[in-house]
Write a structure and sequence with these properties.
The chain has 16 helices and 15 strands. With 391 residues, the protein is α/β, with parallel strands linked by helices.
Length: 391
């Protein structure tokens, strides 16, 4: 094992402009913003890099625990960086306890891993996006908060918050204070999920409020319902279900409306249309027969899917009839209204296969964020960009 004197405490790369993207809360749209910023920066810089130093949601890639956002970037963009360098530290369920049992030895090792990964991710890049994990203080329990990591890597920061006036500005001020403590320059803020009919009034007053604290407003992203719509694969994961029919052709079906099939078939008939997900117990054969009949009359996709609840399978004869259709069918253990509640409250993350969402995200950022201002702030004194003194 290497001693602490063998460990790097700062990146060797001190020249590449680097942008740390933080958020005021989880699910404020930080990853969505990073996805769009990457595409926008590609219009200015030849080679754009990406790294998420610390990840909290990860997937197993050939035995390697990789942050899911790093995997997303790896699949969508030609980043040209080994995936392990894009996701050097993955926080699992027992990470905090393991760290606190031996912080003096573990912390330098984590810093070293992040620094080395950053140097690989920034190698031969003209600019690099560093995606944080939640608000500025996330990770403070192991002395690797977002503010501390931004300092370590010598990055300038932007803060992403939800749309509004009072609450977002308060939260931006709170996060900025921690970046200020560690000497990290906050070069702007982006408000995400702003109600379209309130864009101008939000722009007017948040600009005034943020100017008072020295933070430029770089953009306002209008709320887009499409980005919050789940597909059938995400719903299956949320309800811990399993596929019964049409998984291959139905897993990417986008769900625009959820209907609990507790009504009569006649009442349900008006909901038989693309985009609708029906939740019903498996013994409601009248509902299933209605869907099968509609599928026979219309060769196009008639529903986004059906979730059968209470783990009740239809009769073998009905299952055979369903197999002759393209109706995606899933089964799970919970009762119908609990499943509906789970779906209603689920957080929808962008996935590599979301071909309908990725172009929209790129368009939203390019049209609503002042990329020229952002690149100006990044370039300002970039040749003198320093790195932290270690944390």
């Amino acid at each position: 094992m290497k001693s602490e004197t063998d460990l790097l405490t700062n990146p060797k790369n001190s020249m590449t402009p680097r942008l740390f993207v933080a958020a005021t809360r989880q699910n404020d749209g930080k990853t969505t913003t990073c996805l769009g910023l990457y595409a926008a920066l590609q219009q200015v810089y030849s080679k754009v890099g990406y790294i998420k130093p610390i990840g909290q949601r990860f997937i197993d890639i050939e035995g390697l625990m990789v942050d899911e956002d790093s995997y997303l970037f790896d699949q969508i963009y030609p980043v040209g960086t080994p995936i392990e360098a894009m996701s050097p530290v993955a926080i699992d369920a027992t990470f905090t306890r393991r760290f606190l049992d031996n912080p003096d030895e573990t912390h330098p090792q984590l810093v070293n891993r992040i620094v080395k990964a950053f140097d690989r991710a920034a190698y031969e890049k003209d600019v690099i996006i560093i995606e944080g994990s939640g608000h500025a203080g996330v990770g403070a329990i192991c002395d690797l908060s977002n503010a501390q990591v931004a300092k370590l890597l010598g990055a300038k920061a932007i803060i992403v918050s939800r749309g509004g006036i009072g609450k977002p500005v308060d939260e931006i001020a709170l996060n900025k204070s921690l970046f200020d403590k560690y000497g990290v320059e906050v070069i702007g803020a982006i408000l995400n999920k702003v109600q379209p009919d309130k864009i101008e009034i939000v722009r007017k007053y948040t600009t005034k409020a943020l100017e008072r604290m020295g933070v430029p407003l770089l953009g306002l992203i209008p709320e887009q319902e499409q980005l919050a719509l789940p597909n059938m694969s995400q719903i299956v994961e949320t309800v811990n279900g399993r596929w019964l029919n049409a998984q291959k052709i139905g897993r990417h079906n986008r769900v625009t409306q959820v209907v609990v099939g507790a009504m009569t078939p006649q009442g349900l008939l008006e909901y038989i249309r693309p985009g609708v997900l029906i939740i019903t117990p498996g013994d409601r054969e009248d509902v299933l027969l209605l869907a099968i009949a509609a599928a026979g009359l219309n060769k196009q996709h008639i529903l986004s899917g059906i979730v059968l609840t209470r783990n009740i399978l239809p009769s073998p004869h009905l299952m055979e009839m369903l197999s002759q259709t393209d109706i995606p069918v899933v089964i799970c253990n919970e009762e119908s209204y609990k499943v509906a509640s789970q779906i209603h409250s689920m957080t929808v993350k962008t996935q590599p296969e979301d071909e309908d969402k990725i172009p929209l995200i790129k368009k939203l950022i390019m049209e609503n964020v002042a990329i020229d201002k952002l690149t100006h702030y990044l370039a300002d004194n970039s040749s003198a960009t320093g790195v932290g003194d270690g944390i």
